[in-house]
TrEMBL record:
<keyword id="KW-0645">Protease</keyword>
<feature type="binding site">
    <location>
        <position position="118"/>
    </location>
    <ligand>
        <name>Fe cation</name>
    </ligand>
</feature>
<protein>
    <recommendedName>
        <fullName>tRNA N6-adenosine threonylcarbamoyltransferase</fullName>
        <ecNumber>2.3.1.234</ecNumber>
    </recommendedName>
</protein>
<feature type="binding site">
    <location>
        <begin position="136"/>
        <end position="140"/>
    </location>
    <ligand>
        <name>substrate</name>
    </ligand>
</feature>
<keyword id="KW-0808">Transferase</keyword>
<feature type="binding site">
    <location>
        <position position="275"/>
    </location>
    <ligand>
        <name>substrate</name>
    </ligand>
</feature>
<dbReference type="InterPro" id="IPR017861">
    <property type="entry name" value="KAE1/TsaD"/>
</dbReference>
<dbReference type="Pfam" id="PF00814">
    <property type="entry name" value="TsaD"/>
</dbReference>
<dbReference type="GO" id="GO:0061711">
    <property type="term" value="F:tRNA N(6)-L-threonylcarbamoyladenine synthase activity"/>
</dbReference>
<keyword id="KW-0963">Cytoplasm</keyword>
<dbReference type="GO" id="GO:0006508">
    <property type="term" value="P:proteolysis"/>
</dbReference>
<dbReference type="GO" id="GO:0005737">
    <property type="term" value="C:cytoplasm"/>
</dbReference>
<comment type="similarity">
    <text>Belongs to the KAE1 / TsaD family.</text>
</comment>
<feature type="binding site">
    <location>
        <position position="186"/>
    </location>
    <ligand>
        <name>substrate</name>
    </ligand>
</feature>
<dbReference type="GO" id="GO:0005506">
    <property type="term" value="F:iron ion binding"/>
</dbReference>
<keyword id="KW-0378">Hydrolase</keyword>
<feature type="binding site">
    <location>
        <position position="114"/>
    </location>
    <ligand>
        <name>Fe cation</name>
    </ligand>
</feature>
Amino acid sequence: KQDQFILGIETSCDETAAAVVKNGKIVLSNVVASQIESHKRFGGVVPEIASRHHVEQITLVIEAAMEQAGIGFRDLTAIAVTKGPGLVGALLIGIEAAKTLAFAHRLPLVPVHHIAGHIYANRLEREMEFPLIALVVSGGHTELIYMKEHGSFRLIGETRDDAAGEAFDKVARTLNLPYPGGPQIDRLAREGKPVIDLPRAWLEKDSYDFSFSGLKSAVIYALRDAEERGETIDPKDLAASFQASVVEVLAEKTVRAAKEFQAKQVLVAGGVAANRGLREKMAEAMKSLPGVPLVIPSLELCTDNAAMIAACGSVLFEKGVRADLTLNADPSYGL
Ligand code: KG4
Ligand code: ZN
């Protein structure tokens, strides 16, 4: 069988990314142009600024990905691009680039769901085994997904308010830490102790949903109350306590789902999968599921990138998923 080469393109948020993946698993190139520096002073991603950066970077990033992969457009099997969810003006830049290249080089176009992409980042390091449970935790998402086979995604739980990463970023802002706050909290938490009592939102007994806005408010009140009493709270302890509350709920629900659905594998994906507290808590919780592997991609594959889009696109391509040149961005694309 001929080798398959997929060019992946991702522009859903603040990273302009392109990558080439061979046979769905081998990363030949993975280029990411981050805009974090431009958004930092606003404390979050500014959509209009994101779109402008994508326009500037997209051609360079795609050229670099092709060059590093050492192949030409005629060697490609297909182009996979993020259709959504994400910022509409940002998504459109990647989609227009993908459509232009697909038209010019007569290549099939494969639309990819951003969250499905995050899950498939795992396949670049280890083969997936089904059924599996995937926890996707990022700046915009907190979702538990059941997969019974390749390309099949069933949402079993999601956040009812803030995404996990969003909660990290908001709490970090309260502590005057720079954006993005997740890595900052992670770092502080390692030096502190989880001694401050914060709530855990378990929700209804059987629910796989999440909620983080109450926790975020509890952090703000804890700081305010201490201030009113003329006391100070050590930000390290607050970071440790907040992180402990988030990762405890994430790990418990993921492992409970893995048991109920008799998962053969548990995956964690998305930017928050980089969190060391979550990695440790998950590893600990997985001890109650002997023989079931926990798979978490390495750091550069956890955060937004295009190799994950190409990896997911590879499977969808084999399943016959195609888009034509009317492909449009869908900012609230469902799985
Ligand atoms: O997947 P991603 O790069 O972009 C989205 O699709 O959202 O995730 C970014 C999010 C941000 O909220 C960031 O603060 C969070 O992931 N994050 C972390 C860590 N590294 C990144 N959160 C907690 N601990 C970390 N080490
Ligand atoms: Zn993402």
